[in-house]
Amino acid sequence: MKRIIPKRPTIVLLGKTGNGKSALGNFLLKYNRFKTSSKPDSETVDSLMGVNYSEDFCVIDTPGLCDSQGRDQTHYENIIRYIKNKYISSFLLVFNFEETRFSSDLQELIKIYCNIFNFNIFNHMGLVFTKTFDKNRKRLNLLKSIKKDEYVNYVKNIIENFFNRELNNDLPCFFVDADLEDADDDSLKEREKIIEWVKNLNKVDVNRLRIKDDLRIKYKEKENKSEYSTSYNGNYKTERRDYYERYIYTDINDNVNYGSWRWTDYNSNTYKYKSSCIII
Question: Is residue 229 over pLDDT 80?
């Protein structure tokens, strides 16, 4: 008899290397499934899934992008291959609350995810800020409000400008201090909000995602040209036209790069002609 595997809602954790995705995954699962580290280099090199059986959901931890060791392409391909054919219901984009501004690295990160995923996935995406801790509650609440407004606006603008479409809803924001051993009450309440949000979402179609040759290429277009030449051999004249093509690449930062011209074909016509030269 074939075993039926239940389709549990699954959260995919995404984000920049070192932003605390693995610690957040353990915090959501309530046990240490993913390896964590305080080092700036990515500890996660392969996607991995953990299951919370009592609350009936899964979490997938993924390798971070904007990697200091230049492994973005490898990590991105790993993410796509791993999440295909799984019951994905949501994506959580993880930020470090201690970062002082929405940096150029973060802008590039969002554009990379735009280049990877189809538009509908972003209607299943939320933002999570980790390392959210401050003994001064009044200051903490003010910083949360500022972060939420700033980051949601930045992320939405990048996504909507990239696809030239508007998102159906605002991106939900959550703030946690993902300390599995000593979690504060606010973080535990935020965890419950995350689980409730995830369980109210439908499945995302991730099976149409494709591995791209270069994840930083937004789109490419083909350009053609031809060159005409003539040659003579005695009383014969040959007219020839050669055809070339190249690709024009526009990257995620809207920079335009031109590939090399490549010869593709030719046609020619040879015929006898009478020279008009008069020899004296």
Answer: yes
